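protien #1 (seq + structre)
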Amino acid sequence: MRYVASVLLILSLVSPAMAADPAKDLADARQLIDAQQYRKALDSLQRAHGGIATLPESDREPALSAVHFYSALTHYHLGDQRKSRGELEKFLDITPTARLSNTSLYPRMFVSLFQELAAREREGHEHGVTFDRFYPGFDVTSAPVTRTSTIPVDDTVWSDNVALILLASRGEKREWNDILAPAARAQFIRDFWQRRDPDTTTEANEFRDAFERRVSFADRTFETDGERGALSDRGRMFVLLGAPSMVQRRALMNRDNVKVLHEMVDGTMELWVYSSEQLPIEIPKRAVQYRFVTQKGIGVGVLQRAEEAYATKVLAGAGEATIRR
């Protein structure tokens, strides 16, 4: 099966003018994919990626685009859907108008994945889309509640507890650390959630249920190697503030003033916008926005310093604002 020249706009990605090694590695990778030698193809693609920084600046972006596309295809054939999706997202960040010119050359599910991400990416690049279009699957009302943030009564360390990390006031944290008796800790937990119950006349605690659903979704959606999803920068934002009204993603640019040491800028910038009606505290603005950068040498979805004071104020007060006055 031949994949060469099957993606519109990829036909000219690897030109003879490119430096010899990255061009050769990309050509080798395509041949290895055709021969179904996918592990070796990944090795060639990794070498090509490592050599992109040596190319003329005008050739780097198309070469990087090609690397991400063929990496997505290779990971798909190796059965790693998550990595395939991630590589396709990177490819579409660079070339959001790309199309598969001959879908018959690809596995049906890969084509479906490509088309789904391409439609979302085009809309996201142009206008931004709702959170559930970018990150489908969250249900704030009917999803089952799992007590993922239950505070362990017999544990004096709460560093892994999302509720205490994100919601507790300084006084509550000090109180928790001072409590040793299991019965007193159990009472602390009851009081902790009761202070945040918007309607104490019912048995349900709507705030806690919504919080637990957010934590569960964030753990699944924003998990990275070595970091729990709910405690990642995007996860924390989602757990504290809920879903933003708009999400937009684009390629990271030099003008974004993101410091990248010893690496080429080839990441993404993700923008989350919250309208004032969504926020837990009142602000004299119609909306605030937060920027997340994914870039080698920086990390995945790393929150950038807020450019205006109200965005910082909202985050600083989000946890304590949940306490019922």
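ok now protien #2
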Amino acid sequence: MRVMTYNIQYGKGRDGRYDIGRIAETMAGADIIGLQEVEAYWERSGDLHQVEAIAERLRSYYWVYGATVDIHKGWVDADGRAHNRRRQFGNAILSRWPILATRTFLFPGKLSPVNAHSIQRGITEATIETPLGHVRVYSTHFSHLADEERIAHAQFALDLHRRAQADGPVSSGDHPDISWLENPPPAVPAEAILMGDLNMTPDGPVYPILAGPQNRMYGRLRRNDGFVDSWLAAGRGEEEGATFYRDWVNKTGSRIDYIFVTPGLAGKIEGAEVLRDADASDHQPLVVSFSEPEAR
């Protein structure tokens, strides 16, 4: 099972050209994909719904879209009929296997300096039926502005994970009207994958919130109710694997895109790689491979 996270910069490649087909080609071969900076109906990217366009090209994926920015773009035609269209920006998840339930959470509050661009951000959850069992998959995009806001986003994501099973699925419990009980969603699974452009580096104050604090004898202290950095679980170093290049020629920069997993999934990781030559965005895709149960 191959899982990818990719900030697609709304389809804008290193050459400045918008090409959603090029994004789709880069994603080919992944089984579950978390996307960030995905938009719908912006003029700059061709006035299309990008997730729909990607899924149309890839053909064999289910998908969900979690808009965090949502702005009116409707119109009234000559007959007086209103057409509802929203200009949106947010996160997405695609999967070869059924997405059984989904929900999107907006991060509370928004750092809004008068001298910098700021947007509403959030996290999208999908419960997916995978060969490893049911798994909660999260795609998110932390703030680019300051650690102050990123810390709040990381803590929100961790708290969301920790209370997920207690909160239950999107619809739960008995109801006197049995129509509510049609095809009830499955119980919330314990295992989870949290991925995205987190705009943090391992040496900063945000990373330990998710990966655990550092101990000089034992390294990262993994918590049963927390996450494991899949890059480390694959045997790679914390300072390796840049996903955002400041020097494209030498392919050097910062590791700011991550795939975190619950401890129960960490032992199933076979490998991790950055697709270093992809040029369809200003970020590089990160791919993690999991072993699957043998067929019986």
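DSSP finds six helices and 18 strands in the chain.
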